[in-house]
Each structure stands twice: as C-alpha cells, then as structure tokens.
Amino acid sequence: MLRPAIILAVLLTALTARAESVRIVTAGAAVTEIVSRLGLAPQIVAVDTSSKYLEETRDKPDVGYVRMLGAEGILSQKPDLVLVSGEAGPPPVLEQIRAAGVDVVVISNGYTLDNIDDKIRTIAAAAGRVEDGEKLITKVNADLQALRSATATNEGERPGVVFLLARHGGNLMAAGTETAAHAMIEASGGRNVCASFSGYQPLSAEIFATATPDFVIVSESVGGDDTQLLARVPGLGATPAGRQLRVIRVDDAAFLGFGPRTPSAATEVALALRKP
Amino acid sequence: MNAAREDDSLRRGRAHRRLCFLAALLPLVLLIASALGAVNIGFADLRNLVAAPAQVPEIIRAVFWEIRLPRVLLAALVGAALALAGAGVQGLFRNPLADPALIGVSAGAAVGAVVCFFFGWEGLLGGWLLPLAAFLGGWLAVLVLGIFHAGFAAGGTAKLILAGVALNAMLGSVLGFFLFSASDDALRSMTFWTLGSCASAQWPQVVVLLVFLAAGIILLWRNARSLDALQFGEEQAAHLGVSVPRVRREVIVAAALLVGAATAFAGTIGFIGLVAPHMARLLLGGLHRLVLPGALLLGAMLLVLADLGARTLVAPAELAVGILTAVIGGPFFLALLCRPFSAST
Q1: Could you tell me if A46 lies within 8 Å of chain B, comparing CB atoms?
Q2: ipTM for the whole complex
Q3: Rounded to whole angstroms, what are the CA distances from B228 to A49, B46, B70, B90, B223?
C-alpha cells in the first residue's frame, strides 16, 4: 500500500521541480554570461550565435544572429523566459514572441561600466534569482573598486591607445568614438588616439601620421605574434607602440561585452598601460 | 488554315488546363507551408485550429495565427508581386533577363524604404507611407532605366542588364550610406535589405500588400494585349493601334507598385521575378493573358517554398530567404544566358 504512495510522491516532486525549472532563451553575449553566472546555465535551452563562445552554452541550440532572430525558432525551444540585449531584433519578432504568451525582457545596452549592476539586477529579478544577483553585483562592485585604484595612480598624460578589431577576411579596423572599445580605453585610463572619427574604420597609414599610439590593444583571437601583427598595419611600426612592441591582448568578449567580467578585464589593461 | 486554327485552340486549351492546375496547386503549397515549421503543428492540429480551436494548445494557436499564417501569406503575396512585376518589365523592355532585382528596381525601392526608416516616418499614414516611399524609389529606378532603353531600342538585351548593374551599384552605395549613418535602432540590418526576409510578417502588412497587388494586377491585366503587340516592336505595336507611351507608363507604375510594397515588407529578394515568368512562359506560351496569372501563381509558390526552407533548414535559427532564391535563380539565369535571346521572346 505504501509503495505506490511513495512512487506517487516522488513523481509529484519530480513534476513540480520540472515546473519550477524555467526554460530560458538568451540573446546577446553579456546577457548570456550574466545568466550563467547566476547559476542558471542548465536552464538555458538556446542562445544566439554571439553567445556560443561561452563554455557553458557552446552546445546549446543556436537561434541565429542577435539582430535577425526568428519568432518561431525561439518558440520551438518552448521557453518560459526570453532574455535579450538591446540590439536584439527585428522588433516585430520580439512582439510576436510576447504575443505567444512568453515573457520577453530586453536588457538595454550602453557602453558604460556603471550599469552592469542594473543589467544583473534586471536579469536576476526576471529569473527569480535576486539573492544570487546581489552576490554577483557585490563581486562586480569590488572589481570596479580595484579598477578605480588601478587607474587612480595614472598621473600626468594618459597613454595613447589604438584598439584594432579583426574583421572577417583578416582586415583590421580601428575603433573610433561611439564604440565599446572607445569606452573601455577611457575606462582603463588610456586615451583613444582615433577619437577623430566614430565607429570602426578601416586602417590607413595616414591615421598614424597624426595619431601616435603608445599601446595597441587587440583581441587575443587575432593570429600571429606581435611583430607579425604590427607588420600588417602600414604606418604602425613607426609609432611608439610599434617601435617598442607594446601590444596588449584582450579577451574581447570580456573586454567589450560590458558584462560581469568587464571590470577585471579593464583592470588588467589599466595595469598594462602603467608599464613604461 | 483550318488545321492551324485547330492546332492553336488545342494549344490554348492545354494552357488553360495547366493554369487551372497551377491554381489548384497553390492552396496545397500554402497548406503544406502552414503545417511545417520550427514549432511542430502538423496536419491534425491544423484541422483542429479551424474545426475545434479549444482542443489546440494556446501556444500553437498563437504561433499559427500570429506568426506562421501571416508569414506564409506575406511570402505568397511578395512572391506573386515580384513575379508579376518581372513579367511586366520583361514584356515592356522585350528583355527576358529583366528581373526587378537584377536591373535595380528592387534596390530603388529599398532606398525609398530605408529613407523612410531613416527619418522615422515608417509609421506615418497608418503605415502606408513606407510602401509608398518604396514605390517612389522603385519608380524612379525604372524611369532611369527607361532613359537607357530609349537609347538602345533595337533590342540591346545586354545593355539593359549592364545599366542595371550600374544602377544596382549606385543604389547599393546610397543604401549603405543611409544604413551606416543611421543609429542601430532606426534600421534593421543590411542583410534584410540585401537578402530579404519574411520574418517580421504581420497582418497589417498582408492587407497593405493585398491592395498594392490588386492595383498591380488591374494595371497589368488591362495592358496584357498591348504587351503582346509590343513584342513585335514599338512601331508595329503603334500600327496595331497601341498607345505605346500609355502602356509604358502604366506597366512601369504597376511594376514599381508591386516591387515597392514587396520590398518595403520583405527586403530585396532576387530571382523570383526572373524565374517565375520564365516558367510561366515555358508552361503556358507567350501570351500575357496567360503569362501574367501563371507568373503570379508560380511566384507565390516559389517564395512560399523558399521561405519554408529559410525558416526550417537551420532551425531554430533563420536563413535569409534571398540566399535560397539565389541558389535556384542563379543557375537558372546562367542557363538563360546560354540560350539565344531571340528564342525566348
């Protein structure tokens, strides 16, 4: 008599546990990273292409490029919650997902370190992990404090920095203003020597006639050693950065993502910029 | 003499039967495309959606009525519009290779639509300004082509295509400039405008497109016989009592209306306007009263199937539908290039 009751009880608990485990679809690398940091990686059922670099989400189904999501593709993963970054779209698709009765939370972007805590808070509230969220925020705030002390001692003139982005086909582009890289150069205590233009621009030798970088920052995924890298950019070899091979390699997902790992990535760069 | 007439009526009867077959095939294709997708609906649920909606889970109902059905219908209407525009432009220019996307009409329409987005006007006039702006862009593009056409009236097939290449390049750079200077929120991605997508389909768009399609059908249908006469050359057509300037005006407006509305909602989709009219001519012969409805039906089916591929092949992600139409259309275009031009006009 007792055995069926136990089986029933076990089944019921299993069922309620299942019901409680929210199925999440994320789009946008920083959003996915925060969700994983909150310990929710097992509940992520699909991610966008930009989130595939994360260890935890590498094998999850891919719902496509963050700006070209498909409503049905996402709904086919039967999510209870869809968390997307500000650039996710097209907007009608997000509306269609909402119309199908699924919660869609948009976490706005911004090239600033000041609202990472807001992002975490929004995501933690949406996923019902407020406590874990506050823990993560405490850690991020400590990292931000470390960044502040790392940049506080940078006195005198800020070192000139150029950020090189590798585009497909191996073309290198320099980051101007209104880019994540620009905001991060400033946050790390550097001065973007390419502040005369906005967005990412193809490199020409002329850029370095007026802009003289002391440091080059480049993604660690760019192949070749520093000498080879500098040789690829005409004009760069003659600058202080080129003559002394001052190249800083960064994990671009952390450095440009404005997610939980971004403050410590900035600190690393800030420390590197202090070396003579 | 008698035998020839009998032969002719036989051929026409066969063409009519084939047209009826195509008309019967379209609902079948629509049904299949509505049943298949990333979310599994299936034919049983499809029947229940109409017969017994309460038996169908709510999520399936939402997916079907708000996402899949408007999308399938939008794809059908866009395909029909592009194919009709292609048939009209090919007849007008007496050029079998005149695909609206290849000769720059779609790019013109895309520029019109992007300008509309750029200034944040896409919601004005209850959403009708967007397709109207795309219509204007497409219309200006055909007018420019018309200038060139007058210069090589003696059947310079290649020249029209080359003028289209130049026009495409110029409009592409205008498009790129607007997309580059716009903030990310104002505009959807470049992929949408260059490769097309039916992913953002919504009911209001279906309604607007239906109106534009109806206008295009009326304009082209009343010029169908004149287009037939035009195939012998403009002078001969004029001798047969056709007002060539009027035909030209009306067909150009029709093509621009059709391409404009299609591009405003689905971006630039290539090759449907080339492949569908050609298939129609192969199946039904050269008369425009047969080619136009045939192209409409074939274009609708082709794009519905291409979009079905776009949303299922890499599910849960999506492909740009233009990738698939180019896979079918590119080789088709090359095959046409290998044939002597006179044979297909």
Answers
A1: yes
A2: 0.79
A3: 51, 43, 35, 11, 9
In whole angstroms, give the CA distance from residue A21 to residue B161: 58
Contact B299, B310 (CB under 8 A): no
Helix (H, G, I), strand (E, B) or coil at A81: strand
Q: Phi/psi of residue B56, each to 5°? A: -95, 135
Any B CB within 8 A of A94 CB: no
Rg (CA), chain B: 20
**Burial, A242: exposed, middle or buried (Cβ in 10 Å; 0-12, 13-18, 19+)?**
buried
CB B160 within 8 A of CB B145: yes
B133-168 CB burial, b ≥16 within 10 A, e <16 = bbbbbbbbbbebbeebbeeeeeebbeebbebbeebb
What is the tally of helices (H) and strands (E) in chain A? 12, 10
Give the pLDDT of residue B46. Answer: 85
Q: Which of B38, B199, B311 is facing A90, going by the closest CB pair?
A: B199
Q: What is the pLDDT of residues B109-133, one digit of tens each?
A: 999 988 888 887 777 777 788 889 8
Residues in chain A with pLDDT < 70? Answer: 1-20, 154-156, 167-170, 276
For the record, the structure tokens of A8 come out as 């029933």
User: Residue B66 is nearest to which of A62, A73, A99, comparing CB atoms?
Assistant: A99
Give residue A199's pLDDT: 79
Give the DSSP per-residue string, A96-165.
HHHHTT-EEEEE---S-GGGHHHHHHHHHHHHT-HHHHHHHHHHHHHHHHHHHHHHHT--SSPPEEEEEE
> Which pair of tokens denotes residue B248?
């030209």
In 3D space, the residue among B257, B133, B130 whose CA is nearest the CA of residue B204 turns out to be B130
